[in-house]
Amino acid sequence: MFDLITTGHFTIDWIFSPKIASPRPTLGGPPTYVSLAARKLDAKVSVISKVGGDFPGEYIAWLNSEGVDLSGLKRVEAASSTSFILKYKNGERRLRLRSRAPPIFQEDIPNSLRARAIHVGPVANELSSDVVDKLRTLTDILSLDPQGFVREFDEKGNVHLMRWEAPQILEKIDIYKSSFDEIRMVTGLTDLRLAMEKIHDYGAKVVIVTRGMRGSTLFFEGRFCDVPACRPRIVQDLTGAGDAFIGAFLAEYIRGKDPVWCACVGSAAASFVIEGVGPAVFGEKKETYMRAAEFIKRN
What we know:
By secondary structure, the protein is an alpha/beta fold. It has helices at residues 30-39, 57-65, 129-136, 167-170, 180-187, 192-202, 241-253, 259-273, 285-298; strands at 2-7, 11-16, 25-28, 45-52, 68-69, 73-76, 82-89, 92-99, 115-120, 139-144, 151-153, 159-161, 175-179, 206-210, 216-220, 223-227. The strands form three sheets. Strands 1, 4, 5, 6, 9, 10, 13, 14, 15 and 16 form a ten-stranded mixed β-sheet that branches. Strands 3-2-7-8 form a four-stranded mixed β-sheet. The termini are far apart.
């Protein structure tokens, strides 16, 4: 029994921004950031993912050393790992897909697997509805970040958002988290509150929309709540902040904590991540709780 399992592709990211002098390949993807954020809060974490033969062995060794269970990771030697080029400029991010690992299938998920929460975090349409169906049977709390479902790729790999309608998936979700642009693609609505209410109507108990440095908005138990962003000491790289947020959120949520506190801890975890490049900086448990508590006092 794990506390949290993240399902989706690991990625090899090439991150370009004015603050990064020499871009180099960096470990990324929801299984990285979600797992590490939760692990720092003492959650027992695992992943279900696929990579290619080009996935560096040092990434695997490092994840193991950080306490991430990789028994659900499959390496396909003849394939390439999912890889993105991320370019940040003037507060905007552009994505280009370089390569994509094979999809994750139902048979890749052990029938004996159990977790208190499972997070569905595709990045490039690597999961199907039948995979979500199976994951639903293995946990009491199913979480979704639909980012990989609302992406389409042109012939050069450039990423564009597309409309995504999948009530058969949304009806199975307990926790929903996305950006405002992504929830628009999922619901077809431009009004934030109406869009969040629509997701809630599918069955989600908690709906979260993250808005970068403007914080996040929650909808649960019939009420909306705005949670400002924790301010980092320095901003180096925004990659993975949303995934770190939901990883920490879920680590607290499975312990029965109030969703607002969970969001504050998520915001604190994300604020540490953006102080480094890639998954280099995560606050330890005490540091994260202290930053979340101080944040609550100020707000």
